[in-house]
């Protein structure tokens, strides 16, 4: 399939984009420097694709100019790659809605003239440029500087390197090739695929924060599993996360349709399915009718966690990594049944190490590791009957910030376990469990709203206790009993605490 590009087609900017570029052009004029729009912004402008990322190449000292531009625009200045002289300005959102654009402007220094600079870039479709001053005036496609026939490759819908050395110069381009093909719906040129396979080991040389950014952008797509499998075929995946290599071919109990690796990859798409973001090829949409979905839940999974990440993306990352400890925990018991004892706990530890290496934030790392640690917890709260109030309270207490995330993860894990063999009765039971736990938690939150029955000073004064961890443990036990409607008054709380102490001390 090809996209026709008319030579006399004008590049039209939307008013907010025109306004921003005009501001930048005005600021750069004060520094008496030549500026070019390059890379993805220009490519997306040609194919009429919405973007909030602008790449600007300067014939100047970028480290001197970019921070001043950031100050004038009220943006945050970030160093992306000091060795290659790449810096970013992140502008605050202009509106208050989560879907409003947040502009990112990347500045880089021109080496030699603009044609030489473009020859250092990665892919032909991004090795194009246009003078910033001209694009504001409004120009045609024919004014684009295009030494590597990027426009032609846009028409062919292919991702192709500008030279055989692009990956050696900057190995993050290995992941970017897959991500670009994924985002644009393009195909990676066969010779470029060969180059990726030859250089896949270079991923180990990339700074973690750059890998993190590319990985998160890959997970944005609603068919992320295809990109993950493609990365694996190209040799990138296990060079990025070596622990995943051990999960390949690891057999699972009979209820599992796939081995550990393929189950984990399919769980990524199952996440998007249960979050109403994608399809699940192994069953129809009707199975979602059993899950109570609300606008509140939709907003929950869209909520930002850190720069470039939200709960949905981190849940998909957890899907890829949730069974990463299964290979080393696998046993076959005396009945011949496969077991993976302790794999959630060991997995959480491994995941923490992986995400720290990839420079995920502390909050991101904690969320993903907690999901992995507790991913079996929902189905363990109950077998044949509804979970008790105490079990629900303890679940939400222990899973804390990711309690809802873990519940929906368990649903996706169920789908990725059964595949085509999904039992509707078992699925309905699991969905009802999730619905029940969410509803009961709301009721328990209402129980917690009244003032505390008792505080630490009351306990120390009435039970002759000294300050210390024991007071905290008693207060938590009282809070739990209060939520579970076992006690209602301060006097009952004191009696409850006294009985706990007596029991602990042997009467």
Oligomer: single chain
The overall pLDDT average reads: 89
Q: Please give the share of residues in helix.
A: 40-55%
Instruction: Give a count of the beta strands, DSSP E runs of length 2 or more.
Output: 12
Using only CA atoms, what is the Rg?
Answer: 27 Å
Strand content: 5-15%
Protein structure class: alpha+beta
Spatial order of the strands forming the largest sheet: 3-4-5-2-1-6
Largest sheet: 6 strands, mixed
Distance between the termini: 81 Å
Tally of discrete structural domains: 4
| Overall form | globular
Itemize the secondary structure elements and their pairings.
Elements: H1 15-29, E1 35-38, H2 39-46, E2 53-58, H3 62-73, E3 76-81, E4 86-90, E5 104-109, H4 114-119, E6 129-131, H5 132-137, H6 150-156, E7 158-159, H7 166-169, H8 173-184, E8 187-188, H9 190-199, H10 208-219, H11 224-233, H12 237-240, H13 260-274, H14 295-302, E9 304-306, E10 309-310, H15 311-321, H16 326-329, E11 330-332, E12 338-340, H17 343-357, H18 362-373, H19 377-380, H20 389-399, H21 403-418, H22 424-448, H23 456-463, H24 469-483, H25 490-504
Parallel strand pairs: 2-5, 7-8
Antiparallel strand pairs: 1-2, 1-6, 3-4, 4-5, 9-10, 11-12
Architecture overview:
- The protein is globular and about 85 Å long.
- The protein folds into four domains: 1-156, Beta Polymerase, domain 2 (2-Layer Sandwich), CATH 3.30.460.10; 161-240, Hydrophobic Seed Protein; 248-446, no CATH class; 456-504, no CATH class.
- The model has no long low-confidence stretch (mean pLDDT 89).
- It is of the alpha+beta class and 507 residues long.
- The protein has helices at residues 15-29, 39-46, 62-73, 114-119, 132-137, 150-156, 166-169, 173-184, 190-199, 208-219, 224-233, 237-240, 260-274, 295-302, 311-321, 326-329, 343-357, 362-373, 377-380, 389-399, 403-418, 424-448, 456-463, 469-483, 490-504, and strands at residues 35-38, 53-58, 76-81, 86-90, 104-109, 129-131, 158-159, 187-188, 304-306, 309-310, 330-332, 338-340.
- Strands 3-4-5-2-1-6 form a six-stranded mixed sheet.
């Amino acid at each position: 399939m090809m996209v026709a590009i008319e030579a006399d087609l004008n590049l039209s900017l939307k008013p907010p984009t025109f306004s921003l570029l005009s501001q930048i052009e005005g600021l750069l004029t004060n520094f008496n420097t030549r500026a070019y729009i390059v890379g993805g912004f220009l490519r997306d402008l040609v194919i009429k694709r919405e973007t909030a990322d602008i790449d600007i190449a300067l014939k100047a000292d970028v480290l001197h100019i970019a921070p001043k531009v950031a100050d004038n625009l009220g943006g945050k200045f970030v160093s992306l790659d000091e060795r290659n002289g790449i810096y970013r300005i992140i502008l605050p959102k202009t509106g208050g809605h989560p879907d409003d654009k947040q502009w990112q402007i990347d500045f880089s220094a021109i080496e030699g003239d603009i044609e030489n600079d473009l020859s250092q870039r990665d892919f032909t479709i991004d090795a194009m440029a246009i003078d910033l001053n001209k694009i504001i005036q409004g120009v045609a496609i024919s004014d684009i500087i295009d030494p590597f026939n990027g426009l032609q490759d846009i028409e062919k819908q292919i991702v192709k390197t500008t030279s055989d050395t692009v990956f050696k110069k900057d190995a993050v381009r290995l992941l970017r090739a897959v991500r670009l093909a994924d985002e644009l719906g393009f195909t990676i040129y066969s010779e470029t695929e060969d180059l990726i396979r030859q250089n896949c080991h270079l991923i180990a040389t990339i700074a973690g924060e750059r890998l993190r950014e590319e990985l998160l952008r890959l997970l944005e797509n609603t068919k992320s599993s295809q990109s993950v499998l493609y990365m694996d075929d190209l040799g990138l995946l296990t060079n990025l996360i070596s622990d995943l290599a051990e999960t390949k071919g690891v057999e699972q109990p009979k209820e599992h349709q796939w081995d550990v690796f393929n189950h984990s990859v399919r769980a990524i798409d199952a996440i998007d399915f249960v979050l109403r973001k994608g399809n699940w090829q192994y069953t129809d949409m009707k199975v979602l009718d059993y899950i109570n979905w609300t606008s509140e839940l939709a907003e929950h999974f869209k909520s930002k966690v850190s720069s470039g990440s939200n709960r949905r993306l981190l849940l998909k990352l957890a899907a890829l990594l949730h069974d990463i400890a299964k290979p080393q925990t696998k046993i076959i018991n005396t009945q011949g049944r496969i077991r993976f004892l302790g794999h959630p706990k060991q997995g959480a530890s491994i995941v923490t190490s992986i995400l720290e290496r990839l420079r995920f934030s502390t909050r991101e790392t904690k969320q993903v590791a907690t999901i992995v640690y507790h991913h079996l917890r929902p189905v363990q709260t109950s077998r044949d009957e509804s979970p008790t109030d105490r079990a629900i309270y303890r679940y939400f207490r222990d899973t804390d910030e990711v309690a809802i995330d873990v519940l929906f993860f368990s649903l996706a894990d169920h789908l990725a376990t059964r595949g085509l063999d999904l039992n509707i009765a078992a699925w309905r039971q699991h969905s009802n469990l999730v619905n029940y736990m969410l509803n009961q938690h709301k009721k328990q939150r209402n129980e917690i709203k009244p003032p505390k029955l008792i505080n630490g000073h009351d306990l120390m004064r009435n039970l002759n206790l000294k300050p210390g961890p024991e007071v905290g443990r008693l207060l938590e036990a009282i809070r739990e009993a209060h939520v579970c409607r076992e006690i209602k008054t301060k006097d009952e709380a004191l009696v409850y605490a006294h009985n706990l102490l007596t029991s602990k001390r042997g009467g």
